[in-house]
Design brief:
two-stranded antiparallel sheet, globular, 648 residues, single chain, 2 strands
Length: 648
């Protein structure tokens, strides 16, 4: 997310504060159904149009056409774009009910067609400013796809659509600019974005880092374990890998270096922890909110389902760090260098209380839309009671201003991403892609999953994870569901694999950011991140083939699935790091070191492997994995018992 820049003019800053207040009040009015008491209720399309009217103009005022080009004054053309977007969005807001009654989506008057062209163009430019050139090109090509669909190869071809119809569909249909991304923004994202911003601005990040240091700082490899704990919680708040790395990295990476971790290893740990944080409930990235809207299930159900995969990922990362520290005899920090647990807890216990309220409202009361507003209000109230962290007027303005910028930036991106869905919906290809993919895979779910993993990863390189997720939720998810897999695990699979580009070369933007903080080589850090986070490449296959890992199944099924996954990940981590408790360093097995480590890795994967009849994996796999590990341990024992040659 873009942060507030001191070069912004006072007028733009006031505009940001004004739209933040207006958008928040509008969201509260709609989510809490206050229209029932006021005598006026907004339809869904009116609500989204009104948010666009408030926030889209701000994109052109607050985010320059080229990064860093402004010196404080907003250029005349940005003011022009802001005024045009205000007028255009206000036009559609005022006429939204009339448009539905008159069927403008299918046959609009000429002046409405021209306004639709303007809406299309303004949304594209807002998407470019908010998301960059890569997502702009994707949205441009996909939104214009109906214009050239007939000239594509037969497998992708469709009947071309006149440009005027495409324009009004994008501007008026509930399947494009007003589609699922914007709807998720209006229903869920606003509240959680305000909560995450308030948590950061009240000092929540510092509290979680200090708490992690007080609990884990003095154990072996302590600072690296602190990074897992603190970055996981911070990533859950921010929803951004890059923001997370830049927030916690300057504290955790130097601490890791102090106890003996290399620059590359420290940066790799921070990258993996920050990436996992975005997938960690209760507050996940924007794609998770869109998933809830897509699947038409409560967001709390998404957050609950994400709990076990998130625990498995952080467990794998934690034991790898522990094994690495044990093998290299790395200590923790001295107790005198660490904050005290009691003092830290006293200073920030209210953050845990607020999180408890949020989880209670999400999972028990099923009030996922209202929960973040209550949590934010409680957090700010408790913060103002405590003298050491109390906001003054400048702090409050800063919070409102940053919230306004982030709301505008995210809605500008969501509106553009919605046009990806719109381009496919106009041509009808969104309903036929699944059939084509099933045919290409020969109906084999495992082949489809491998195709999906590769496609998710490639799209994750050039697109924001939200855009990549939406595209594949339309194109790939139906094919996997038709092949016999459950919808929620399928959508989680796509989300997880789209995140992997943050830790995987050649892009690995999360790793490259951490490398700048650590002063390490970017590509080397990328490969280290890939090595440390390797378990995340397998976890999506585990839960998509074993829905019990997403809490879908009986208590016994969930227990067996989690236990086998934990044992398998433990053994895989030992093989990767060359150390296992009781066995010690595996490097002491001489020339058999790599055969032994490979057997532990393969054995662990087979033990953790789901027992899914769709891919013909049975209980025998578990026995095979156990046998591989027994063979590895036996080889290790035989090598170590071999007598050493006598000294000459």
């Amino acid at each position: 997310m873009t942060e507030i820049q001191p070069t912004r003019t006072p007028l733009v800053r006031r505009v940001l504060m004004l739209v933040a207040i207006l958008a928040t009040l509008t969201s509260i009015y709609q989510i809490f159904n206050l229209g029932f008491y006021a005598g006026f209720s907004m339809f869904g399309v009116q609500y989204i149009y009104l948010l666009l009217t408030m926030l889209l103009p701000v994109v052109f005022l607050a985010i320059p056409a080229r990064p860093g080009e402004r010196t404080g004054r907003v250029p005349w053309y940005d003011w022009g774009l802001a005024v045009m977007s205000l007028g255009c969005c206000a036009f559609f807001t005022i006429n939204s009910i009339h448009a539905v009654n008159q069927g403008w989506e299918f046959a609009a008057p000429e002046h409405v067609v021209w306004m639709s062209y303007l809406m299309w163009a303004l949304t594209l430019e807002a998407t470019r400013r908010c998301g960059g050139w890569a997502i702009f090109v994707v949205v441009l090509l996909m939104s214009a796809f109906p214009l050239y669909a007939s000239i594509l190869p037969d497998s992708m071809a469709a009947v071309s659509t006149p440009i005027n119809y495409v324009a009004i569909y994008h501007a008026l249909s509930a399947e494009s600019i007003l589609g699922i991304p914007a709807q998720a923004f209006g229903k869920l994202v606003i509240g959680f974005l305000l909560f995450g911003t308030a948590l950061q601005r009240t000092g929540g990040g510092k509290f979680f880092i200090d708490l992690a240091f007080s609990l884990l700082g003095k154990v072996r490899g302590g600072p690296a374990k602190v990074s897992i704990f603190s970055s996981g919680l911070m990533g859950s708040m921010s929803g951004s890998v890059i923001t997370n790395v830049l927030s916690t990295g300057p504290l955790s990476i130097p601490a890791m270096r102090k106890v003996g971790f290399t620059k590359t290893y420290a940066a790799g740990v921070e990258t993996c922890a920050s990436t996992g944080g975005v997938l960690m409930p209760p507050v996940m990235g924007a794609a998770a909110f869109i998933m809830a809207t897509f699947l038409e299930i409560p967001y709390g159900q998404i957050a609950l389902a994400a709990a076990i995969p998130s625990v498995l990922y952080f467990f794998g990362l934690f034991v790898q760090i522990d094994f690495y520290a044990a093998r290299n005899q790395l200590k923790g920090l001295e107790e005198a260098e660490l904050p005290g647990f009691v003092e830290t807890f006293k200073a920030g216990w209210h953050y845990l209380f607020v999180f408890a309220l949020l989880v209670f409202m999400l999972l028990y009361l099923n009030r996922e839309a209202a929960a973040p507003f209550y949590a934010t209000a409680l957090l700010i109230a408790l913060n103002q009671i405590r003298a050491h962290s109390r906001w003054n007027l400048a702090d409050l303005k800063d919070f409102v201003e940053i919230s306004g910028l982030r709301l505008a930036e995210l809605l500008g991106l969501m509106a553009g991403i919605g046009m990806i869905m719109g381009g496919l919906a106009i041509t009808g290809l969104s309903g036929t892609i699944a059939t084509d993919l099933l045919y290409m895979a020969g109906g084999d779910p495992l082949v489809l999953l491998l195709m999906g993993a590769l496609t998710s990863f490639i799209l994750g390189i050039g697109m924001p994870i939200t855009a990549a997720y939406i595209f594949l939720a339309i194109a790939l998810a139906p094919a996997l569901v038709d092949a016999g897999l459950s919808p929620l695990p399928v959508h989680m699979f796509i989300l997880y694999w789209g995140m992997l580009s943050f830790i995987t070369p050649p892009v690995a933007v999360g790793a490259f950011t951490a490398a700048k903080v650590a002063g390490s080589q970017p590509m080397k850090t990328g490969f280290m991140s890939m090595h440390l986070g390797s378990i995340i490449y397998f976890i999506p296959f585990f839960f998509v083939l074993e829905p019990a890992l997403l809490l879908q199944g009986s208590g016994l099924e969930i227990f067996k699935a989690v236990l086998s996954a934990l044992i398998g990940i433990f053994l895989v981590a030992g093989g990767l790091q060359g150390y296992l408790p009781k066995l010690g360093s595996l490097s002491r097995s001489g020339i058999l070191q790599w055969p032994v480590r490979t057997l532990f890795i393969l054995g662990g994967l087979l033990i953790a492997m789901p027992h899914n009849p769709l891919i013909k994996i049975s209980e025998a796999t578990l026995l095979t994995g156990a046998l591989a590990c027994i063979v590895a341990a036996t080889l290790l024992s035989l090598v170590r018992r071999r007598p050493c040659p006598a000294a000459g």
